[in-house]
Amino acid sequence: MKDKYTNQAQQNVSGARSNPFEELHNAFAAAEQSTPGISDVFVKELFRRVAPHVSRERRMHGIMDRLKV
């Protein structure tokens, strides 16, 4: 999916080519730098809302461990 959309980068207001995945990565990096751990909180909240049956603490820790690079 990333490769599909990377090649179809959109143009922003200034006319420069913009990569939405790079922008999202940069936004998360900046948020994580200013508030360490905020990305984990965001992903946990996302799972709680999208898949409430997965939000049990033990199961959530397993999922979060697999997501970390």
Automatic annotation (TrEMBL):
Residues 22-49 form the Programmed cell death protein 10 dimerisation domain. GO terms for cellular component: cytoplasm. Keywords: Cytoplasm. It comes from the Eukaryota. The keyword Cell wall biogenesis/degradation does not apply. This is Programmed cell death protein 10 dimerisation domain-containing protein. Signal peptide: none annotated. It is found in: Cytoplasm. It holds the Pfam family PDCD10_N.
